[in-house]
Each structure stands twice: as C-alpha cells, then as structure tokens.
C-alpha cells in the first residue's frame, strides 16, 4: 500500500486494466486558497500617530535638505581650493621650467666656451715647435716649491729649464 497514494491504483480510485492504456485521470480543482493572514491582528493607527509620523518626516526632510546644502557648500569650497592650488602649481611649474631652461642655456654656453678653450689648448699642445722641451716646460710648474717631507724635485725642474733654453741638437 502506498502511503502518499502516488503509486497505488486503489488509493486513487482508478483501476488499471491489464494491457489497456491508461486513461488520464481527472483531478478535482483545488479548493480556494484561504487568506494566510486571517486571524492576525492589524495594529490600528490613530489620527494623532499619523500626524506625528508626518511631523517626524518633515523634520527629517528639513535636516536632510540642510545637510545636503552643507555638503554642496563644502564641495564648492573644495573645488575652489583645488582650482586655486592647481593654478599655483601651474605657475610654480612654469617658473621652474623657465629657470631650468635658463640654467640649461647657461650651462650649454659655458660648455661650448670650455670646449673651445680645450680645443685651442690641444691644438697649441700638438703644434709642431722647434724645441719640444718648451712644450714640456709649459706642462709642469717649475716655480713650485717642495714640501719638507717630499722629495726634492728642484734638480729635475732645473734640467727641464736648461733643456728649454738650450735644446739638444737632434741627429737627422
């Protein structure tokens, strides 16, 4: 026997004849559904309670409107401050770039002048002279005095000066 009546043909009241196809069952229409909230009490709203709710809503609405205006004012002030700071930053950046460009141009001019001087010194140093000891004497400081603790290089300086003034004859 089927407890739920799903598979037992006797429970449903229909007999299945052997070998014959099953005829569709006719099921009765479901009963009208009852109100699920029937029996529950509904709180009664008095006239004064409704007025109090509306008054609360207007107070809340006033506060929300005031708060919204305050937030908008704060947002406007922040935007103005941002705009001011951006303008100040742009001015500082512009000034920094101008200073930087001026320094770059000045450094470029200085580098060009130094390069010209170096090229001139190099051309003078590589220029053929009759006495090569003259060029050597230009490269060292012959008037420098030695310290007490260091070696005495005065003989070498005297030798270079004498070679400069009386060069050795070169065999050709």
Automatic annotation (TrEMBL):
Compositionally biased spans, kind Low complexity: 21-38
Gene Ontology BP annotations: intracellular protein transport; vesicle-mediated transport
First-listed, main subcellular location of the protein, grouped into a coarse class: membrane
GO CC annotations on file: clathrin coat of coated pit; clathrin coat of trans-Golgi network vesicle
Any one GO molecular function term: structural molecule activity
Annotated localization: Cytoplasmic vesicle membrane; Membrane, Coated pit
Topology with respect to the bilayer: Peripheral membrane protein
Renumbered residue ranges of the record's region Disordered: 1-62, 107-130
InterPro entries xrefs: Clathrin_L-chain
Top-rank lineage group of the source organism: Eukaryota
Similarity field: Belongs to the clathrin light chain family.
Described purpose of this protein according to its UniProt entry: Clathrin is the major protein of the polyhedral coat of coated pits and vesicles.
Protein name per Swiss-Prot or TrEMBL: Clathrin light chain
Species annotation: Pyrodinium bahamense
